[in-house]
Design brief:
single chain; mainly beta; 7-stranded antiparallel beta sheet; 3-stranded antiparallel beta sheet; 12 strands
Length: 172
């Protein structure tokens, strides 16, 4: 066999194998940057601090002629409304809370109904508060908001002093 022919055949086989490998490889592209870059953002806020500064007080309620369930309420402004068959004292106080946190943040307020009790009898107290407040400063002195509420009295309600916790939570 001719040595030149073997060398030429080997070169053709090697070139074909090498060319097939190169042809199967993907083309590499140059790195590109985004035409509009994304941005990073973080808002840092102070933790909220909620403080009760005044408790709600309905004053004295006289059961004069209660024949059915009737409500007693106090507005967020402190006005008492007495239901049929009741006489309420002229003075009462709404609850006042102070919330402190980061300036110009809206704070959501949530309240939960809870029992007030005289030890043997429970009355369901339903609080009312604004849905939100805007913090007008950062930290102290915070922003005050008022909480009122209502409960029902019926003919079976026993006399005594009724107390319980007012459940209020705040969140950004």
């Amino acid at each position: 066999m001719n040595f030149a022919r073997i060398l030429a055949a080997t070169a053709v086989v090697t070139a074909a194998a090498f060319g097939a490998t190169l042809g199967a490889s993907p083309a590499l592209a140059a790195p590109v940057s985004a035409t509009t870059p994304a941005t990073a953002r973080a808002q840092i806020v102070k933790p909220l601090v909620l403080t009760a500064t005044q408790s709600i007080d309905f004053g004295t309620i006289l059961l004069t002629a209660v024949t059915a369930s009737t409500a007693v309420s106090i507005s967020q402004a402190g006005a008492i409304t007495c239901g049929t068959g009741l006489t309420c004292s002229a003075t009462g106080k709404q609850a006042i809370f102070n919330v402190a946190g980061s300036n110009n943040q809206t704070v959501k307020i949530a309240t939960t109904a809870a029992n007030i009790t005289n030890g043997t009898t429970n009355l369901l107290f339903t609080p009312s508060a604004p849905a939100t407040v805007l913090l007008t400063n950062s930290g102290a002195p915070g922003t005050n908001f008022n909480v009122g509420g209502a409960f029902a009295i019926d003919i079976a309600t026993t006399d005594g002093v009724y107390t319980g916790n007012l459940i209020v939570t705040v969140d950004y």
